[in-house]
Design brief:
Layout (H helix, E strand, L loop, with lengths): L5 H9 L6 H18 L3 H4 L7 E4 L6 H12 L3 E5 L15 H21 L1 H16 L18 H26 L7 E8 L14 H14 L3 E8 H16 L2 H15 L1 E5 L15 H18 L2 E4 L2 E4 L4 E6 L11 H5 L3 E4 L5 H9 L5 H10 L4 E4 L1 H17 L6 H17 L7 E4 L1 H13 L1 H7 L1
Parallel strand pairs: 1-8, 1-9, 2-5, 5-8, 10-11
Antiparallel strand pairs: 3-4, 6-7
Helix pairs in contact: 1-2, 2-4, 5-10, 6-9, 13-15, 15-16, 15-17, 16-17, 17-18
Length: 462
């Protein structure tokens, strides 16, 4: 488990997310508490449950990005799901327990990838030998002894190793050529496993998705993938063989057990659109839709408070999985959730709306800023672009204005504006190779002028 301090976690999140310091501090403390819990004696450790979080704020202010970057930073299994995908058991829709099964799949894939990296050197060595076997097949052992020699006689041994000795010399020459890259473009024939043609799709009954998954696995075992010879370049065949050799060196039972432990102790489930399943009590809450939403909350409750979910990898306890819920909460409020579920999300933080100052920082400070991305994209065509400070200020002010006059979609407004500004340049870039272009305030106003002035037009285009 990551032992980053809260200050270090916030510092890393600052590289990608602008503002929202209170929310960053809250999730940083939550992650540090996980590390602290692991340092406590087992008797008390099991009694300490994670403090789940509700992040409130309009779309595009960084709720999902905070959770995703946090999971990537701490190397925890992470899964994002929308609460509106779930329905009460008995209705058509997904069962809430399916998100635990999805999280477990992510955990297994994560651990398998890490274990493959650990055995990669040995897998590369074995794959290299198999590539050389394709180039220079080994001779099969003789089933009968040559006439005039006894089994195990000295003369027989000398006769048997004389021919392979020449092949060994040739094999070493091929090995040196392969390592130097001289054989990368040569084609070889390699047997690969392809998925069988019989694909069976199981439509599971709501609430019984796990049974459907097991049935699908059973049908897949009835129609296993078959080996088929394919021609490919040596450099591609080498990568395929590395994956096959790594799979042979990894113990799947150990992977599943490690993944189960990691999901139970470090898993993060991000439940978006939590406000959409809240029932507004000021309007009575008597409609069938309100009943269904409350049913989803009641189905969600045992998973959040701690239960055991059956997956194809075994039973998963949810007691120590960290749940982060998010939603705009414009109309419904956290107090509109059922009381039992409210109590399972004790930490709540409201994220700030973004203004032109934050938009300017978003365009200039993050390592993956949009301005950096577009500069790199056009650089592939030989076009160098640069932005003046006035241009970025104009873009930021435009984003704030459009968000105020139409729907507030936060930082996502920058995507539409930047794409509109650079649309013509992106189209003409192959014809402008070698040029240097400066994006200034006048260029931005020229590309956006008519759209920004016409509110109806901006509503549809920006």
């Amino acid at each position: 488990m990551s032992n980053l301090t809260p200050r270090e976690i916030v510092s890393e999140l600052d590289k990608y997310i602008i503002g929202q310091n209170a929310a960053k501090r809250m999730v940083a403390v939550a992650m540090r508490n996980r590390w602290r819990r692991q340092q406590i004696e087992p008797e008390l450790r099991d009694e300490i449950s994670p403090k789940n979080i509700i992040l409130m704020g309009p779309t595009g202010v960084g709720k999902t990005e905070i959770a995703r970057r946090l999971a990537r930073l701490t190397k925890c299994p992470f899964f994002k799901v929308e609460a509106t995908k779930f329905t009460e058991v008995g209705y058509v829709g997904r069962d809430v327990e399916s998100m635990i099964r999805d999280l477990m799949e992510i955990g297994v894939n994560m651990v398998r990838k890490e274990e493959a990296e650990k055995v990669r050197i040995k897998a590369e060595r074995n794959a290299e030998e198999r590539v050389l076997d394709l180039l220079l097949p080994r001779s099969k052992p003789e089933t009968a002894e040559p006439a005039g020699f006894f089994v195990g006689s000295q003369s027989g041994e000398i006769e048997e190793i004389s021919e392979p000795a020449k092949k060994d010399s040739t094999r070493e020459k091929f090995r040196q050529m392969f390592r130097s890259g001289q054989l990368d473009e040569r084609e070889v024939e390699l047997e690969v496993t392809e998925q069988s043609g019989a694909q069976v799709e199981i439509m599971a009954i709501p609430g019984m998705e796990d049974m459907g998954s097991n049935l699908q696995s059973a049908f897949s075992n009835m129609f296993p993938g078959r080996r088929k010879a394919r021609k490919m370049k040596i450099k591609d065949a080498y990568q395929t063989l590395i994956d096959e050799e790594a799979d042979k060196l990894i113990d799947p039972d150990m992977v599943n057990e490690m993944a189960r432990e990691r999901v139970e102790q470090q898993g993060i489930l991000f439940i978006d659109e939590m406000d959409k399943i809240a029932t507004r009590h000021d309007q009575g809450g008597s409609g069938s839709a309100d009943v269904s939403r409350e049913g989803v909350q009641r189905d969600l409750l045992p998973v959040v408070e701690g239960s055991v979910v059956n997956t194809k990898y075994g039973m998963i306890k949810t007691d120590h999985i960290l749940f982060i819920a998010a939603g705009a909460f414009h109309f419904a409020k956290p107090s509109d959730l059922i009381p039992e579920l409210q109590g399972r999300f004790p930490l709540r933080e409201e994220l700030d709306s973004l203004h032109k100052e934050e938009f300017y920082r978003i365009l200039t400070e993050p390592k993956n800023a949009l301005t950096v991305q577009y500069k790199a994209l056009l650089k592939t065509e030989g076009v160098t672009i640069d932005y003046t400070q006035e241009a970025l200020e104009e873009i930021s002010a435009t984003a704030e204005k459009i968000n105020t006059e139409t729907e507030n979609i936060g930082a996502r407004r920058l995507y539409t504006i930047m794409e509109k500004i650079l649309a013509n340049l992106s189209f003409e870039a192959p014809d402008k190779s070698g040029q240097e272009i400066v994006i200034d305030r006048e260029y931005v106003q020229e590309q956006l002028g008519d759209i920004v002035e016409n509110r109806d037009l901006s509503r549809y285009i920006l």
